[in-house]
Each structure stands twice: as C-alpha cells, then as structure tokens.
Amino acid sequence: MMAYMISLVALAIDAMLPVIDVIGQDLGVTDPNKPQLIIGMLFLGLAIGQIIYGPVSDSVGRKPAIFAGLGLFIFGCILTMLAQDFNVMLLGRFLQGLGVAGPRIVSTAVVRDVYAGRAMAQVTSFIMSFFIVVPALAPLLGQWVADMWNWRAVYFVLLAMAVIVSLWYGLRQGETLHPEYRREFSLSNMAASFVEALKVRVTFGYSLAAGIVYGAFLAYLMTSPQLFEDVFGITHNFPYYFGALAICIGSAAFVNARLVMKLGMRKLCTWALFAKVVWSGAFFVIAVTLSKSGMSLPLPAFMLWAGFSFFLLGILFGNVNAIAMEPVGHIAGVGSAVVGVVSGFVSLGIGTLIGQSYGGTVLPLIGGFALLAPISLLVMNWADKGHNDS
After folding, report:
1. For residue 160, what are the contacts with CB-CB under 8 A and spacing of at least 6?
2. Under 8 Å CB-to-CB from 87, ≥6 apart: which residues?
3. In angstroms, rounded to a whole number, what is the distance separating the alpha carbons of residues 110 and 103?
4. What is this structure's pTM?
C-alpha cells in the first residue's frame, strides 16, 4: 500500500512522458523545450507541498494529511484533464504536485513511525523495489491510453488511481502517529521544528546531497522524450527503453535491501557515488570525443551508461533518505518535509538548468551526472564528520 501511494508521484510524472510534446502542440506551444515544464511544475508543487504536510501530519495525524493531499491531487487531475490553455495545464500540474506531496511525504513518516535504522532502510528499499514497477510501466500505460483515446484520458487514469488508493488506505491502515508525539500546530511551532531539523548536520547535509545527485536524474526525466527522438530516432518505442532503464533502478533497490544490513548505509552511498564519478566521467570523455568528430554516442552505449548509472541511483535512493531521517524520528513529519523540501528545490533547480541546456546531444545529461556525483560525495563527507557508520 505504501508503495502504491508513493507510486502516484512516479505515475503522474512518467505516464505523461510519451505525450508531453503532443500536449504542447495541442495547447499552442512553439518552444521545443517548454513542454518540459509539464514535468517541472509538478516537481515545484511537490517541493512546496512538503513544507505543509509534514508539520500538519505531526499535529493532526498521518491519515488526515494524506487524505487532504489526495483530494487536492484529484482536483489537479480534473483541471489538467479539462485544460484548453498551456498555463492552465501548468497550474493543474502544480496542484497535482502540491497534492501528491501529501501521500508522498507523509507515507515516509508512516514508515519512520514504525521502523528505525537499518531496518527502515531495508523496508524503504523493499518499497522501492515494488514501486519501481510503476515507472517502468507508466510510459507504456500513458502511450496506450493516449493511443486508445487521447492525452486527456491519461489524467483520468491518474484520477482513478488516486481514488482507489484513497479507499484502500482509508479501509486498511490505522493511524501510526502515537498521541505522545503529536505537536500543537502553529506557525511558531512549525518554524521551530524546521529550524531544529535543519540544524541537524546529517539531515541537512544528506538532504542537500540528495538534491544534487537527483538533479541529474530529474534532467533525464525532463529531456528523455526529446533525447530518444532527436538523438536516437526513437518515438513510439520510447516507453520500452524508458521502462528498461527504470527496471535498473528497481533491481538496485532490491539488491540494496540485502546489502544494507551487512555493509551499512553510508558505505553503500560512498561506493555508489564513487562508481558514478568514474563511470559517467569516462562516458562523458567518450561522448565529447565523438562529438568533435561529428558523431553521437551510439544507442547501445547510451543504454549501457544509463543502465549502470541508474542502478547506482537505485542504491542511493533508499539509503540517502533513511540516513537523513534517522536523527529526526521524534519529529518525523517535519523531518520528512525538510528532507523533501531541501532535496526537491535543489534537484528542481539543477534539473531545470540541465534540461533547458538540451540542444540535441547527450552531453548535458552525461556531463551533469559526472559533475554532480563528486559534489554530492563531498557534501555527504561533510555531513558525516563526527558520525559513525550505520
């Protein structure tokens, strides 16, 4: 159920990828990079929404916060489904992100209410391993629905999925926030809790590092339809390539669930980031060399690079969030919000910058992976000063 709830985010992103160019054309967009905002605005709403739901869930409980978010997400689906103007489309996507932030961020707090330490990392990894089926299949779903009806029907599917998970959660899951951990909601309490969480070096540092390394992945999400079509000539078969790479992330999460109990979260993060530096750096040099000769990186080589790079991301996903959340278990709602807000805004800024730099080559994307991994590693090392491995 938690995997399904979290997967609404991936579904809202990945199901739209095959049709964002069509949406842009139907709504009168002429700039080829502007439809990327259909993805970016959802991330903006997601980042802002996490500021709200964490403190609210610490006050009124996890269930009311999740239901409020699902309701707003459903309203955003209706708005986008009926949009006749690109700005209205972006507003609807923003509201979808603002709404889905509720189940996304509060479900993390639900997990933290029940688990801690390496056990939490293991559970998170198992959730990720099941959840990854959604982004692997979502583009196929989006393309199939659009081919059968139109792109507006994709938003109807999102609406239906939100209704289903609302009923499931309401009927099957009790409240996990113990009464003694509830905090009175007020702006002063919220500000104090945010400052408390931000002052925790590990929480802030790992949130920042997560945003840096996820920024490159967000750039991939924004540019993947253009990249596969412009560079490799792939249009209708795009969901299959996207899904294959998504499975690489999911398989890594499954492997991580077994390794983390033996090796520890920090060691796995360090190894994964170091491997990303070497791997992406080598492919960037190859891509630059080919570009100077008037050639582009072949599709098999790109898939090889992306597959292993995303596998390493799968190792990082569960561990980085678990480390950031570990010191703030007593304020898990606010802690989840701080992690989400810091990493969200950082990744959105970086991803948009790389995405808008797209000019028909793989260089900005691979270069972003190569550059951002060592920066994230340095930030993690700073955050870990004085801490033992866990």
Report:
1. none
2. none
3. 10
4. 0.85
The Cα–Cα gap between 270 and 122 comes to 18
- pLDDT for residue 389 is more than 60: no
How far is Cα 253 from Cα 259, in angstroms, rounded to an integer?
10
Q: How far from the centroid of its chain's Cα atoms is residue 387's Cα? A: 27
In whole angstroms, give the CA distance from residue 44 to residue 329.
26
Residue 28 region by backbone torsions, left for phi larger than 0, else alpha for psi between -120 and 50, else beta: left
Distance CA(23)–CA(79), nearest Å, equals 14
| Both structure tokens of 289 | 């060399």
Tens-place pLDDT, residues 119-171 = 777 777 677 666 667 778 899 999 999 999 999 999 999 999 999 999 988 88
pLDDT of residue 128: 64
- In angstroms, the Cα distances linking 29 to 6, 26, 40, 45, 93 are 31, 8, 16, 22, 16
Stated length of the chain: 390
Complete domains list, the chain, with CATH = 2-173+188-383 (1.20.1250.20)
Q: Which positions ≥6 away from 192 have C-beta within 8 Å?
A: none
Residues 97, 41 contacting (CB under 8 angstroms)? yes
Query: What number of CA atoms fall less than 13 Å from residue 226's CA on the CB side?
Result: 23
| DSSP for residue 198 | H
Per-residue pLDDT reduced to its tens digit, 307-363 = 999 999 988 877 888 888 888 877 666 777 788 789 989 999 999 999 999 989 999
